[in-house]
Each structure stands twice: as C-alpha cells, then as structure tokens.
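seq:
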Amino acid sequence: MAVVDRWAGLGSALASFLFLWSMVQRHVPVTISHRVATWANKLVSYFNPYVEITISEYGAERFRRSDFFLAAEAYLSDACAPRARKLKAELGRDSSNLQVSVGDNDEVTDAFQGATVWWYVVKKVPRSNVISLYANQDDPRTYRVVFHRRHRDLVVGKYLPHVLKEGRAVTVRNRQRRLFTNNPSGGGRGRGDVWSHVPFEHPSTFDTLAMDPDDKEAVVDDLEAFREAKDYYTKVGKAWKRGYLLYGPPGTGKSTMIAAMANLLDYDVYDLELTAVNNNTDLRKLFIETTGKSIIVVEDIDCSVDLTGKRKDKKQADKKSEREADDKPKLPMEPEKDEGSKITLSGMLNFIDGLWSACGGERIIIFTTNHKDKLEPALIRRGRMDRHIEMSYCRFPAFKVLAKNYLDVEEHELFDQIGQLLEETDMSPADVAENLMSMSKKKKRDANACLESLVKALKQAKEEAAKAKVEAEAKKKVEAAAEAAKSKEEDEAKEGSG
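struct:
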C-alpha cells in the first residue's frame, strides 16, 4: 500500500511540475525558451552518440512527393521488408506487380560496409479541424535514419546515394510501362496535360520478330550497347540519345520492331502525332515533358507534316487564286482558319539534335517511313538518325521465325518450295503470318493446311506480279509510242510553218 501511495505521490508531483512549466512558458520570452531548448539538445547529444537524418514525404513542392522519399520507400521494400514486423501491401500507381513495403511506425535495420543503420517509419497524426495542404494526404509520413556518429561521412557520402540509386532501380523494375500520345495543342495547357497514357502491353519481342537473324542480332547488340553507354556519351561530349530510321514497305514489321525494342530495354513509348502540334515551341515542350528510359516515335514522318515548305507555298497560291476569282468580302462569321501544323524543318532538327535534345538522357528517337527517298537528307543524316534499318519483304530466314511462332514447326517438306517462292515473290511478313494463322474453331491449327495455303498464296502473288509487270511494260510502250507520235507531229508542224 505504501508503494502505491508513493507512486501516486510521484504522479501528482509530475503533474504539478508540468502544470507549473506550462505556466512558466507563457511568461518566459521566446528567445530564452529557445536558448533553454538548445542547451537541452546539446546536453542530450553529449551523452547520445547517435545522429538522426529525416526524410520527409513532401519537400519544397507541397503537392508533390519527394523523389528521395519514393526512392527510400522502394529501397526498403526490396532490401529491408523481409526483416520488418509490420508490412503494407499495395499495387502502386505505375506498377504492374504487388508491392510489399515497410508499414507505418515500424523499425528496420540495414547494414552497409560495416555500419548499422536504423530506419524508422513515422506517420504524423493530423490535428483535428485542420485542412491539409498535401495532395490527397492527411497523414504525411517521414523516414528517420539513425546511425552512430562515427559513421557520419559513410552514411551521408555513400549510403544515402546508394539508397537513392537502388531505390530508383527498384522503381523501374516494378513500374508498369506506358504508351503515351500527345494531346491536341498539348504544349500550351500546363504540366501533366501534354501527354495521355495507357498501359503498354504489346507482346512483341525480338524472339518473335520476323527478321533476318543476323540483322536482328546487330540491332539487339546496338540497343544493349546504348543502354550501358552513359559514361561513354559523357566522355565524348554527346547527349545520351540515339536515333533510328525504320523504312520499308507496309506490313514489314516497323511498329512490331518498336514494340520489341521497348520490351527489350523496358522503356516507355511516346507516340508523337505531329499533326496535333501547333508549332515548334509546343514541340519543344512536348520533348521536355518526356522522361528518361523512353522511346519517342514519329510514324510515317513523310506523311505527317510538310517539312519543306512546298505544301504551304501551294496552299498560299491556291488561296491567292481563289481571292482573285472571287472578290466578295468575307462575312464576320467566316474567319480565316489556321489549317495544319506550323512545325518547320528547323524546329524538327532542333527537336532531334538541338540544345534541348540534351535535356534528360537515355532516350531513343525513331522515325518510320515507307519511302526513305522522300525525306529531307538533313533530317536523316548520321548523328540524327544514327542507324538506318531496312524492314524488307519476308524471306526464308524470317519465314522460319514465323513458322516457329505460329505453327511450332521448324522443319517441313514444303519449306524448300516456300523458300524458293519467297525469293521470287515480294510478300510482307504480315501477309505471310496471316496465311499461317488459322482462326477456325471447328478444326485445330493444322500445319500442313496452313503451309499449303501459304504456297497457294505465294503462287498467286507471283502470277499477279508477273501480270502487273507485263501490263506495266505494255503501258510503257504505249506511252513511248504516243510520245514519239506527238514529237513527230510537232516536227512536221514546224517544217510546214517553215
């Protein structure tokens, strides 16, 4: 009973002390109370050999989570979560996998080069009747990193940069890759609105790509060398980017090649639609809003916009002739429309190889076209489009890849005949694949039937090509005869007039 009375007296004394201290604080100047708190912290630090570093969830930008906090969160979920007692499972916003991370108000231990580091996950409890300034967060979290003061230089100089690097790598591995497209007039509406995206789930890989194996291996080697060449690009003084020009007839696999590149490198894809871009300034803003580890694609660049100015001159001439033919004044309700994009060749060249192209790094720029000869030479020169890859018609090595993909067949008695027909006939890989793909529900995919169908299609295509060639030669002869007759008439007319 005496012990209970003693503890009760101690509690009463402590309550009285706290009450008196609160009363004293009201009458003590702020400078004195601040100095007393500083001395108290110094006294505690004298006896406490541990240092604490705080990593807040939100930094200077109150509505944006700290990059370092996100990297630390990813690092702890990968390296320290197995040793945690409280775990939190969630599917991240840009993640394709389930993420298990350290729970709130928990402690985990990490070791680095002989130093022990304690991580504390602190969740701040919001005060009642207070509106939070954080975006969708009423309870921001904080990481406290505690370590012995003799390891201060090691933790600050090496460990925390290690956490940042590894955390970013974990984020890249876990994220859901995305396919972006630019919004109309995207450059002028503010951050976050210039690009829209969906999950990128194209299944194409270089193993399933119908292409000559030697050419395919060369492309893969070039891509992997680029991915590991950050220090080399810095050494030679070039922006860490690379350009590819994919050219060839329709159906030869240009878009499939892009998807295979993205899956190999684990990059996002930005599909840039030039006709939705107003001018060079908007084009530059679009580039700035792309991220590293990305592929920027402009498909059918020869058909997107006119980069030579010829089309614009033609439109101006047409408008001038219309004005001369019709002198009626325009009504106020008929304003002159600004048709088409105002992107110029100079703006496009700066987009690929100008000063702004060095903003960020690890980007690949790809142009596709069906007619390489129609492109401006300055647009596709080496240094801008570093590698030109021809996507040609299907030949026997590419056919063997398709046969393995669609029919699980590596050898067949019809292969020799098909190989000979493919050398004599121009058929795209898309057309070959269509003949190998059976969509009948009543009968299962029959390799013999599919290959026979392909042989029939190749023979028909060969006959049609021969027929078209004969017709083209006949037409050419008729045109030559007509030209000769016309020239003869002109000569006779000149002689008669003489």
